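Dear U.,

For the methods section draft, I wanted the exact inputs and outputs in one place so we can describe them consistently. I've listed the two proteins in the order they'll appear in the manuscript figures. Please don't edit the token lines directly; just add comments below if something needs changing.

First protein:
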Amino acid sequence: MKILFHQYGSICEPDIISIFEASGIQVVREDAEVTQKSIPAQQRVRMISDYLFNDKFTFVFSINFFPYISDICERFQIPYVCLSVDCPVLELFSESVKNKWNRIFLFDYTQYMRFVSANPDCIFYLPLATNADRWDQVISSMTPEEYDTYTSDISFVGSLYTEKSPLSAKTLPPRLAGYVDGAVEAQLQVYGYNFLEEIITPELTAQLKKTFQDYRNLTSVYPGTDNYTAANYYLAMRAAELERIRTLQALSHDFHVDIYTRSSCKDLTPGSNLRLKGGVSTLTEMPKVFHCSKINLNITIKSIQSGLSLRIWDVLGCGGFLLSNYQTEIPEYFEIGKDLVCYESIEDLKEKAAYYLTHDDIRMEIARNGYEKVKAQHTWAHRISSMMQTILATLS
């Protein structure tokens, strides 16, 4: 079996490729976009088409959905398999999602339920995973000096969304700013449920389109696309920025907190309890932080409405103790309090942080349970095996 793997630089690509190859699948990498982000659309189409003209592939694969690849595969009548690892993925609103040669796998069940009706035989639910074997290799080679370097009471690894939130970089008209601020502040008081899309008005959408010339106007098979974009691309990004900054600042009042990020930290006040440590390499440094931190903090962006972000799987796969906001799908895979711990407010987060920082044996047992469950049931090898079974069943 031979597949064409379109790469664009996703951090998940090396793990997925290694699993395919370990399964005996020949992987041909189409990776021009990794080094040439500004390749014109026509050239991208020609490059994929040339591969399919000149060789025979069982399917084309990519991380996340690319409408133009779907359309090419539809013309060539070859399956296009994609695994979504982000949310939102606005390209899913494309008409191309209806193509019958698609095999689309979505990790957020709420997202899956939104899209499946457009192409029920070709859209599937599949949670994310991790590569525990990779992390084991990195951690087993750590030196005592590295353990000292990466040990933290509480650590956070990831974006603060200061560079990703369109609303933080734009001065909004007063009326629009007032509505946006009110909606975001209300959402920040609610844990475990995203209602932003429900309160978007046509007036708000119209003002956002007027304010942002690059607003994503999508030709969609779904009603309410503008509402989804406004809620999950604009308001949810702003909510993520404020939630992460406020949560980390609040924790640092009582605990030592290390922040590993490449985002701007201008709205954070560093001090004796809060240290800004810059970004870390995903493959070589991040697992060391997860393994050595007493508490790893996960704050899920609101646009991931029910699913488990990649951060959850990776922390557990590194043997780290995880303290995460509650997501409705967590109990389907883990026992809360046994494999990981969830919080439901900043005050709850502080209480649980204080408890687990002073109960080493309990904390370490929970970290060990989470690691063992992930390694036994939730690696990329498990997910790719499940995905391949689904693909082969639909092609038989």
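Second protein (the one for the lower panel):
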Amino acid sequence: MAEERTLAIIKPDAVSRGLAGEILSRIHKAGFAIVAIESRRLSREEAEGFYAVHRGRPFFPDLTAFMSSGKVVILALEAPGAIARWRELMGATDPAKAAPGTLRKEFGTSIQNNCTHGSDAPETAAFELSYFLSGRQLL
């Protein structure tokens, strides 16, 4: 399996509930290298740009308001097959449908408040990583 990088975000709901440390611990235990990490609060404009693919959908305003409502932790993760492995560790978007032991099953409270974000494909990962992290941060 090829070495990959993917973007991960610990969302405002998880940060505000003090779950960032537990999620970071699970990332380490799963064998990911954290190539870059940054804690910050997104502006509404940053959230809108990041989720621009969803512009026009009914949930877009709520999603961007939520993602700019508090601090997030932005990570670049690296591992063989990182994209699929991170998505597996996160679990299904809807915590009610996520597999036992996944982050979203254990810590998510709704489809929106599901604790984590992850890239879904190599092209998406490339865009998302460059959206938040500079090339210098990703050396």
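Candidate sentences for the figure legend, describing the second protein: The chain has one domain: 3-132. The chain has seven helices and four strands.

Thanks,
Y.
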